Amino acid sequence: MAKLKALAVVVLCHPLVGRLLRSLFGGRVPSLRFRGWRLDVRSPAVSPRTVAMIFWGVYESAELRFVERGLRRDLDVVECGSSLGGVSSAIAQRLEPGRRILCVEANSDLVPLLERNVRSNAPDVESTVVNRAIDYERSEVSFIEGDTSTGGRTSGESAGTRRTVAATTLSDLLDAHGLEEYALVSDIEGAEAGFIHHDAPALSRCQQILIELHPGERYGNLETEAGMIEALETRHGFRLTPKRGPVALIER
Predict the structure, then answer these.
(1) What number of H helices and E strands is found in the chain?
(2) What 8-state DSSP symbol labels residue 153?
(3) Euclidean distance between CA atoms 201 and 217, whole angstroms
(4) pLDDT digits (tens, 9 = 90+) for 137-167
(5) Orientation of helix 15-24 relative to helix 48-56, angle to 10°
(6) Could you give the angle at which helices 86-94 and 111-121 cross, rounded to 10 degrees?
């Protein structure tokens, strides 16, 4: 059954399907699974396969389910790794009046899409987009473009097209934008180890974390999912609630 599902995803998310969908919907593609928003995909930075994944509800599906079911409405949100704004739009639509979202994205090619998508899907919510990477060792990092056009990273293997992006820390973001208690949403391809191990002040103000964990070597250490969750629980006072694959919801 699992193999059949995987085969179905390959077929349904073929680039030819994505090109057809992009044309059919005029570049603003809905999701059959996650209703309520359309994503602007009118950019070479969004691959046809990603377009198809959005339409069929495969794109960021675990994060979107957690947003729908458990993300707190009563907190400002900092989202690290906002990509083209799918999860960002779902977050912004969920927030109570007066709450705001700060979107942090390292890939400058995606920033215009991110801004348009959040603004069009949640026009009444205060949103800010920052083109930065999260890093605790350098003032700028080498950003590596992903092979799916929205899967870039600032750590890991050396394959892929590189560009330089300015770095910041979670604490600096909070201070610069006047954020106190907040919820953190993070999908930054391994860079989450930075704030887990090096930014206790920022995490002390955080009330909830929705995070995709990426095991691997970071800051000279081999990080595992279990090790990062343990650090969040024992050092920072969080507790793990639901988990789906590498995506976890962690509460204060």
Answers:
(1) 10, 14
(2) B
(3) 24
(4) 999 988 776 544 455 555 444 445 678 999 9
(5) 70
(6) 30
